[in-house]
Specification:
Length: 368
């Protein structure tokens, strides 16, 4: 199979979708790997290292998309890439369709087979391709929150851990999944006062068991959220419904409950966000202010730490890439029902129920 790895063109995206060991494994099995010139620079991987491991370095994304049967990316295709996608071509990447109807309809029109990292199910019912980036984003949310709480960044001028005689910051985390757990672990290390909310009581019991004393768990309901907003210096949104748009838990009206200069980081913004006032931003222009509340809503947070994120992502995506290359789509899906859930579109039909329901589209059964 011919496998293509284009350079990511989304603004401030520094990850790459394959590392040299992956190239070596594929080429040793007789597959061709085409990598666009400079694709790995943002992750500290030079073209020469890819080439030493068997990759063919090509000059343009157009050549990648023209030749590759399977294209591996990190982020969803940007508008400039839509016109060079080929019907029947397999594209394996993060799509987050439910947050973007324009993207959904344009990718559907291309006729590509859209295989989404974020809906691929593991053997335990987990989301293995989403987990590592959620770990990175959860940890980053606290370091970014700490920065934007500083007064020069328009924040309240709060040190997360406080000092003797001065109270620490209060951090509220909506959602106790992978992002929320990692955010709470880092925040607790800063000695902040942390509250984490979820609707899964078993998950709350687990978090209660593993977290230190400065992390409190609460059931996520409207009253508890509003009570905590009044205390929050930093609010982390980390709610996920796989493949679907994130539920909005905080309205614009609720912002009036918060202290001026408080910070919101909506990690769920790539799935539409769980804060009503959230809209995607970039690393170059990461924040905006609404009603005196600083909003940080970068849709590709892990892209800022490209090397860490690239290796973490490729560690989990490569086995599925190899499975696709060796067995083809039908073989891979027939062998692994969880992998079949990653197929969101094929033959100009939507096969993800969550995406179809979001945009009131017909959902077709995946057939080969």
């Amino acid at each position: 199979m011919i496998i293509g790895v284009p350079r990511e063109v989304k603004k401030d995206e520094y990850r790459v979708s394959m590392i040299p060991v992956g190239v070596e494994e594929l080429t040793n099995r007789g597959h061709r790997v085409l990598i666009e010139k400079g694709a790995g620079v943002g992750s500290g991987i030079p073209d020469e290292l890819f080439k030493e491991n068997g990759a063919e370095i090509v000059d343009s994304a157009e050549e990648i998309f023209a030749k590759a049967e399977l294209v591996i990316k990190v982020k969803e295709p940007q508008s400039a890439e839509w016109k060079i996608l080929r019907e029947g071509q397999m594209l394996f990447t993060y799509f987050h369709f439910a947050a973007d109807e324009e993207l959904t309809r344009n990718i559907l029109d291309t006729g590509v087979t859209a295989i989404a990292y974020e809906t691929l199910r593991g053997s335990r019912g987990d989301l293995p391709c989403l987990t590592p980036m959620s770990e990175v984003a959860g940890r980053m949310s606290i370091q970014e929150g700490a920065k934007y709480l500083e007064r020069p960044q328009e924040g309240r001028g709060i040190l997360l851990g406080g000092v003797p005689g001065v109270a620490p910051a209060h951090i509220v985390i909506l959602g106790g999944g992978v992002v929320g757990k990692n955010a709470a672990q880092i925040a607790s290390g800063f000695q902040a006062d942390v509250s984490i909310l979820d609707i899964n009581v078993e998950r709350l019991r687990y978090l209660e068991d593993i977290m230190p004393a400065n992390v409190n768990t609460l059931y996520s309901d409207r009253h508890n959220i509003r009570d905590l907003l009044e205390r929050a210096d930093l609010l982390i949104g980390s709610v996920l419904i796989p493949g679907a748009r994130a539920p909005q838990l905080v309205s614009r009206e609720d912002l009036k409950l918060m202290k001026p200069g408080a910070v919101i980081i909506d990690v769920a913004v790539d799935q539409g966000g769980c804060i009503e006032t959230a809209r995607p931003t970039t690393h170059s222009d990461p924040t905006y202010i609404i009603d005196d509340i600083v909003h940080y809503c970068v849709a590709n947070m892990p892209g800022a730490v490209g090397r860490t994120s690239t290796y973490a992502l490729c560690n989990v995506t490569f086995p599925y890439i190899l499975k696709l290359a060796e067995k083809g789509l039908a073989g891979a899906c027939g062998e692994d029902q969880g992998f079949a859930e990653a197929v969101n579109m094929i033959d100009r039909k939507v096969t993800s129920r969550a995406v179809a329901e979001t945009f009131d589209m017909e959902c077709s059964e995946l057939r080969f």
